[in-house]
Design a protein that fits this description.
Layout (H helix, E strand, L loop, with lengths): L1 H27 L1 H13 L13 H12 L6 H7 L19 H12 L1 H32 L7 H16 L6 E4 L2 E4 L2 H13 L14 H30 L2
Antiparallel strand pairs: 1-2
Length: 244
């Protein structure tokens, strides 16, 4: 009986985490991936799995698959612009789980034998289930409001419109559409911001000079301030338009 309760609780907890990952991905695309694994990397080297969470490398695998899916994928947009490294190379300090027997041996003391066995055995199940979870989240949000879904085509447009100005310290506050100026979305700001953050280098692709770490840190701080200002001003512009 106790084992059945643990299985149900772990399965439900993992499913909820994958639902959250799916919704985050559908709403903001690559920005969710970079934010999640930036956080997991800062959290320390661990597999991340337990009763409440599936292993981090399984979550990464599913998000990478989504970022590479479709004729025009998020990854192809970023690669086509020669911008950011492959998403498979991101957060190298988040380790991959070893083979099942080794993983069980490593976590049995901290999790207990029953919980460790449940976690190990659920990995293959959720590896198979995850694509369905992501597809269901996309369909639901698209049916709720198509404008909620962040697409590779939108990323391509955002990069073309906002990345170069952002490098010139012009925050992505608004854009022109059919002759009218409209406020940028939070998803646009987050994605252009992450790409700029990951691509802190000379605007000239042929530049080879090494940038000191202190200078890079200063640029990162400045970029952060610009993006906060972009969020604030784009929201102010949106409220202004709604009350005209």
């Amino acid at each position: 009986m106790q084992e059945n309760i643990l299985i149900r609780e772990t399965l439900q907890n993992w499913l909820n985490e994958f639902k959250a990952d799916a919704v985050g991905h559908v709403l903001v695309g690559p920005a969710f991936f970079f934010a999640l694994f930036g956080f997991l990397e800062l959290a320390g080297r661990s597999y991340g799995l337990g009763k409440t969470h599936p292993p981090s490398d399984l979550r990464r695998k599913q998000l990478v698959r989504e970022l590479n899916s479709g004729t025009q994928s998020f990854q192809s947009v970023m690669q086509g612009c020669a911008l950011t490294p492959l998403v498979t190379d991101y957060a190298p300090n988040v380790p991959n789980c070893p083979a099942k027997d080794t993983l069980f041996s490593e976590i049995r003391k901290s999790h207990g034998e029953i919980q460790a066995a449940i976690c190990v055995e659920l990995i293959e199940l959720f590896d198979a289930m995850a694509p369905t979870v992501f597809s269901a989240a996309r369909d639901y949000l698209k049916g709720l409001s198509p404008d909620l879904v962040y697409t590779p085509a939108q990323l391509s447009t955002d990069v073309q419109l906002h990345l170069k100005p952002l490098r010139k310290l012009i925050p992505p506050i608004e854009f022109q559409h059919t002759g009218n100026w409209k406020p940028t979305s939070l998803a646009t700001i987050l994605n252009v911001g992450w790409i700029a953050l990951l691509d802190l280098r000379d605007e000239d692709p042929g530049a080879t000079a090494v940038v000191p770490a202190s200078e890079t840190a200063a640029k990162m701080e400045q970029l952060h301030e610009l993006l906060l200002k972009a969020v604030e001003l784009s929201e102010a512009r949106r409220l202004w338009e709604e009350h005209k």
